[in-house]
Amino acid sequence: MTIAPVLTIAGSDSSGGAGVQADLKTMTMLGCFGMSAITALTAQNTLGVQGICPVPAEFLKQQIAAVCEDIPPAAVKVGMVYDTPQILAIAEAVAQYQLPHVVVDPVMVATSGDPLLKQQAQQALTEQLFPLAELLTPNLPEAEQLTGTSITSPPQMEQAARQLSETYHTAVLLKGGHSMGSCNDLLYAAGTATWFSGQRTDAPNTHGTGCTLSSAIASFLAQGASLEESVRRGKAYISGAIAAGLSLGHGHGPIAHNYAILKKDHIT
Ligand SMILES: Nc1ncnc2c1ncn2[C@@H]1O[C@H](COP(=O)(O)OP(=O)(O)O)[C@@H](O)[C@H]1O
Ligand SMILES: Cc1ncc(COP(=O)(O)OP(=O)(O)O)c(N)n1
User: Fold this and answer.
1) Closest Cα partner for 137 from 110, 176, 100?
2) 206 within ligand 1 shell (Cβ under 6 A)
3) pLDDT of residue 153 exceeding 60
4) Is the distance from the beta carbon of residue 178 to the nearest atom of ligand 1 less than 6 Å?
5) Which atom of ligand 2 is closest in space to residue 112's alpha carbon?
6) Closest CA to 103 of 134, 128, 129, 80
7) What is the tens place of the pLDDT at every residue in 180-215?
8) What's the whole-model pTM score?
9) Cβ burial, residue 209 (10 Å; 0-12/13-18/19+)
10) Taking every annotated instance into account, which residue ranges of this chain make up the domain Pyridoxamine kinase/Phosphomethylpyrimidine kinase (predicted)?
């Protein structure tokens, strides 16, 4: 029996909705073998982030080496990274192990408003990590911060995705979850813009949607799908997991990663 191994390099979310926990659930549900190198422990729930305990860069490197020297991943998702030494360690590992299909979710601030990346590390993230990615998956606030522009319309989304793609020589999926209307995402790859439309589910429970989408795309890439097909299937998975209507916690609750095997009546 063979199964595509996928590595997530990301932070731990104690409440299980985002970060490494969301990534491993996603990879498992999509038929991959999930592996992890943890950048930070967060004390977090649906109301916000109460604490962050970063992992030393040397130990992060040791985790990545332990995985790559034994079970080489077929794709890698990079999520929350905390500081510049961690970013340099990841960039070094990507080069050293020639890691394939690197999907970088530029997590800067949680939806709760809590910062997850040290402010001084943004330059290292864009200069060291972005150019190594096959795909970047910013949300609208992240794309606004990265381009220094305001993005409030589909043409502005196209302009921003193109700017990021040309600056960092990589494909960009600009996610529309933070827009007011439909949840349409834009893939800009090799000079071509492709829209992936999505109906908005009118519910506050979207904790971990970005983590889930990026690890779903990495999972499909690991299984040999093209970038466009991976985004299409990732979008279908995230839409179903949100629409399932899981309701947990007192704030922005998590989504149902295992919706495909749950009976609707059992989702509370
Ligand atoms: N309420 C919603 N209904 C349907 N899809 C959503 C909703 N919120 C976000 N999405 C989708 O979830 C994915 C993650 O997007 P987004 O929430 O913008 O990212 P992030 O979690 O990084 O802030 C995108 O495909 C987006 O369109
Ligand atoms: C440990 C950890 N990593 C990433 C996030 C951000 O998750 P994301 O899916 O981008 O969005 P929200 O959950 O903030 O809506 C996180 N919260 N924790």
Assistant:
1) 176
2) yes
3) yes
4) yes
5) 14
6) 134
7) 889 999 999 999 999 999 999 998 999 999 999 999
8) 0.97
9) buried
10) 13-255
Q: Does 201 contact ligand 1 (Cβ within 6 A)?
A: yes
The number of the ligand nearest the C-alpha atom of 80 reads 2
Please name the residue whose Cα sits nearest to atom 21 of ligand 1. 210
The predicted model gives 249-262 an average pLDDT of 95
From the list 122, 161, 123, the residue with the least C-alpha distance to 139 is: 161
Q: How many residues does the chain have?
A: 268
Between the CA of 73 and the centroid of ligand 2 the distance, in Å, is 23
Q: Ligand 2, residues 38, 49, 52, 107: which to mutate, most atoms within 8 A of Cβ?
A: 107
Range of the domain at 37: 5-266
Distance of alpha carbon 30 from the chain centroid = 15
- Residues 223-235: pLDDT tens digits? 999 999 999 999 9
Query: DSSP label at 128?
Result: I
Helix H or strand E encompassing 1: none
Closest ligand to 151 CA? 1
The complex scores an ipTM of 0.98
Q: Please check the confidence at residue 266 and state whether its pLDDT lies above 70.
A: no
Give whole-number Cα distances, 231 to 109, 190, 214, in Å: 23, 15, 9
CATH number at residue 32: 3.40.1190.20
Cβ neighbourhood burial of 113 (10 Å; 0-12, 13-18, 19+): exposed
- Ligand 1 lined by 234 (C-beta under 6 Å): no
In three-state secondary structure terms, 23 is: helix
